[in-house]
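Milestone 3.1: sequence recovery, worked example.
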């Protein structure tokens, strides 16, 4: 099994440009035979809270069809971050497109700060089985809540995959939690973060993957990149490819 996290620059509210950049990353991931590709929080639009409601997509939006097609073409699960309108409520969501044409939705359960003004919290967890691994989905502030990791354990997941926006100021604190939880849960923990500026924050970059308390691979602060980890005979190894 091979998992990759995409470290991207924000499209700053330009969904068309965001889709084009996602396609570029998906193509690069396909060349590396990636099974599961994870993008950051609100990756399709950037972390644009004040205009999120106007940018929010519907589950059946035709703009998303390309991801279903690419998931099938490359036999890859693709987790895309976006503001998503579900039954009239806007959520910070990850839509996971799977090769058989289905899509799974995870809506962020733990909102942070001003997010509470613009979004509705999700109520359900989301586990996707991919290449023999049970992948538990998370978004940013979820990763700082011990209760969320407990739910991951109860679900019998082997991978915890989170799209985030973490600033340079907050990265070290959060990274200590990620390292600790990957060890406590004896699992793979994958973090997809932005590089550059979005939503008024200077993103830290440094998207990374840990396994059982060991850092396998980490991007630098400034480059767009794929951070990848592969499992062979129960052993994980990681590497970074700048784009």
């Amino acid at each position: 099994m091979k998992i990759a996290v995409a470290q991207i620059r924000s499209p700053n509210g330009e969904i068309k440009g965001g889709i084009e950049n996602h396609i570029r990353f998906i193509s690069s991931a396909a060349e590396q035979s990636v099974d599961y590709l994870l993008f950051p929080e609100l990756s399709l639009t950037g972390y644009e809270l004040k205009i999120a409601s106007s940018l929010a997509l519907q589950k059946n939006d035709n703009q998303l069809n390309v991801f279903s097609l690419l998931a099938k073409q490359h036999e890859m699960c693709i987790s895309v971050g976006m503001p998503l309108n579900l039954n009239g409520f806007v959520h910070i969501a990850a839509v996971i497109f799977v090769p058989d044409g289905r899509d799974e939705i995870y809506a962020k359960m733990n909102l942070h700060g001003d997010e509470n003004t613009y979004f509705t919290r999700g109520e359900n967890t989301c586990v996707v089985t991919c290449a023999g691994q049970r992948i538990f989905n998370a978004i940013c502030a979820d990763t700082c809540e011990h209760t969320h990791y407990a739910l991951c354990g109860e679900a019998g997941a082997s991978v915890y995959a989170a799209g985030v926006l973490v600033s340079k100021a907050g990265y070290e604190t959060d990274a200590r939690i990620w390292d600790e939880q990957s060890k406590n849960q004896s699992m793979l923990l994958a973090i997809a973060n932005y590089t550059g500026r979005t939503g008024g924050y200077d993103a830290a970059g440094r998207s990374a993957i840990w396994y059982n308390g060991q850092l396998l691979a980490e991007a630098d602060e400034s480059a767009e990149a794929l951070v990848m980890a592969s499992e062979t005979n129960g052993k994980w190894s990681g590497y970074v490819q700048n784009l």
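Residues 2 and 230 are 4 Å apart (CA to CA). The first helix runs from residue 15 to 31.
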